[in-house]
Specification:
Blueprint (H helix, E strand, L loop, with lengths): L2 H10 L3 H14 L10 H5 L5 H4 L18 H6 L6 H4 L2 H11 L5
The protein binds iron/sulfur cluster (SF4) (2 copies).
Length: 105
């Protein structure tokens, strides 16, 4: 089991309030708003933490670049992927790569 799987497993044993507290803390660490791909639509919708919540809701489609690797969240959560706003959450991208064994963009 890698770090991400351990974190997900640990969260399954938390109360809803505890999970919420973790999500809020991770949100406060998210640096998406400084990313070239992040746009006004996403800002107005207060979108962030795509690595957990999944793709942007009809705001971000243009992949300019992704600054996730410089964010502290991937290290803490053991994330392997990037471009979560356009390609889906870490969990979804892991699943796709497992099923298809290749990059789905
Ligand atoms: S890894 Fe990316 S999407 Fe996740 S919190 Fe950091 S900047 Fe936001
Ligand atoms: S997930 Fe990556 S590409 Fe998307 S806005 Fe956040 S840092 Fe930028």
């Amino acid at each position: 089991m890698d770090t991400f799987e351990e974190k997900v497993q640990a969260m399954k044993n938390m109360t809803p309030d505890e999970v919420q507290a973790v999500v809020e803390r991770l949100k406060s660490m998210c640096i998406c708003q400084g990313c070239p791909s992040y746009n006004r639509c996403a800002k107005e919708g207060n979108e962030m933490l795509f690595c957990a919540s999944g793709k942007s809701f009809m705001c971000i489609s243009d992949e300019k670049s992704c600054i996730c690797p410089t964010c502290p969240v991937p290290k803490e959560m053991g994330l392997k992927y990037t471009f979560f706003c356009t390609r889906g959450a870490e969990k979804a991208q892991r699943y796709e790569h497992t099923v298809w064994g290749t990059k789905m963009v």
